Amino acid sequence: MPGGLTRKFDYEKGKRHASVRKDDYRESIIEEGDNFDRGGKAPAITLSLKPSAISRNLLTLYGDDKQSLIRTLEGWCFSFAGEVGTISQLLRNPKVADDVADHFSIMKKSILRAEDIIGVAEHPQKKRTFYVLEFKCNLRPETPFPNPIFKKHLAFSVKFVGPASTT
Fold this sequence. Notes:
By secondary structure, the chain is of the alpha+beta class. Helix content is 40%, strand content 23%.
């Protein structure tokens, strides 16, 4: 006869299986395929001391730059379905709110997943070189983006796709 702890684990296992069968999970699993994030990643080590050298993991700094870019884009004016405004203004507009939320979430995922360095750019005022990452933008900006968009440690290049690529 199973003990209380085993019953609890069986119950939790059943809950996990039931949640995966839900439509909202099923769609995201199918859409993301092999890249589906199941969580449980180990935190990145920021500083590594080895006998011969000190190395630094810049992924956390790059993550801060990606979040900074998302906040910058939230304040940028976009044009969508004849409506113009910042993301928060467009989200308050009931005619386009759902579509804008979907498009912006796709753009945020593209920024957060950007890993491949496509080049190096020199900042015009700081005279410092930055690695350039490319992200996909599916919302059309009202005024053109600077190319690349410089942040503290990285620069970002925009690739327009979907509704943003048509004029």
